[in-house]
Amino acid sequence: MNTKQEIVDAMNGEGDTSPPALFTQTGTVSMMAACGCPWPDSIFDRDKLIRLALQPHELFGFATVRIPFDITAEATVLGCGTDKGDGFRQPAVITSPYDTGEVLDPPDFMSVDEFLASGRVAMHIDAAEKISKEHPDLFLTASMVGPMSVASYLTGMENFMMGMFMNPDSAKAWIEKMLPYQCAYAKALSEHVDNVFVITEGSEDTMAPDQFDEFVTPYETRLLSGIRESFSTVHTCGTTDNVLEKLASLGGTALSVEASRDPQGVFDRVSDKVKLIGGVDPINGLLRGNPADIVASAKMFAEIGYPVVGPECGIPPQTSDECLMALAKYREM
Fold it and tell me: Which domains does the chain have, with CATH numbers?
């Protein structure tokens, strides 16, 4: 049986059961059908979002609930336009009034209080409060992105990546401009949730490792230091071989990276610095694998010593119920 207390104990460095948990994106087509809350409706409507977010517990017995299902809320509130997606795709930022072809100094934006009271930022805070009050027996995670991600959405991803090389002072000014919003959002979420899941920039697929200390560390450490009312998890997608120790030292309670390529190596390098959340492969495991594969992978991570076992990145929407049930019950199989 999965319980919230098992996860709390694991995040506190106690217990030895490696409970299964879902800290990453959880929406699947099957769950959407089961509760009648498909994307994109359940991304933009609070009550439908909550109903879909509860499905992993109701259908499979996970002791976790995780919101939201996408990563565009903050940028949308600050002026970006989005493609709302469909039943298989999450929203994506497609326009910004600040995408001018180059990274210039940032303008003034709305106040932090207005940001917290606007759009889906406010909706996610409200949803977190409602879930925490109505389901105190579930371990609640809320995700958000780091300030560099918001800056890159607003200025244009390619523009920002180029600006890091050609105009680094302006790029850093944009990150600094976004930081108060993200710090306030993290604090507001932490007042209602058990775990704030910060999607942190750091993948070597999009950033040179030597840029990490310049564009990530100073800002993420300040953001994470303000999360005092809950646990925090740092998550980065993609390759992190050359920044792994840096990610582990940002100040999060836990670290979630793509560890399935080298489970033992990741554990050996950073398990003395941070709790590891991982590391079942969502594509080759949950999506393309079978229940036996998933049970074997989950048990391997538990035997290595990962305190919490779960997907290493977002669950693909086409993932089957059978594979999720195998993860939820891996200790019983």
Answer: 4-332 (3.20.20.210)
Model pTM? 0.97
Residue 256 belongs to what H/E stretch? strand 254-256
Secondary structure element (H or E) that encloses residue 302, with its range: helix 291-304
DSSP 117: T
- Nearest Cα to 125, choosing from 57, 187, 51? 187
Under 8 Å between Cβ of 319 and 326: no
Q: Tell me the pLDDT tens digit for each residue of 115-166.
A: 999 999 999 999 999 999 999 999 999 999 999 999 999 999 999 999 999 9
Tokens of 45: 């409507």
The one-character DSSP state at 330 is G
3-state secondary structure of 323: helix
Q: CA-CA distances (angstroms) from residue 303 to 19, 24, 253, 308, 309?
A: 12, 22, 21, 11, 10
**What CA–CA distance (Å, rounded) separates 297 from 151?**
37
pLDDT tens, position by position, 197-239: 999 998 888 888 999 999 999 999 999 999 989 999 999 999 9
The CA distance from 193 to 139, in Å, is 8
How far lies 82's CA from each of 75, 79, 206, 210, in Å?
9, 10, 22, 32
Pairing of strands 81-83, 92-95: antiparallel
3 state SS of 280:
strand
Alpha-carbon span 144 to 129, nearest angstrom: 16
Residue carrying the six token digits 């699947």 = 28
Token pair 């910004």 is at which residue?
A: 96
Burial of 328 (0-12, 13-18, 19+ CB in 10 A): buried
Pair type for strands 64-67 and 308-311: unpaired
Residues whose CB is less than 8 angstroms from the CB of residue 206 and which lie 6 or more positions away in sequence, other chains included? 161, 238
For the chain, what's the residue count?
333
Question: Is the previous residue joined to 68 through a cis bond, with omega within 30 degrees of 0?
Answer: yes
> DSSP letter at 287?
I
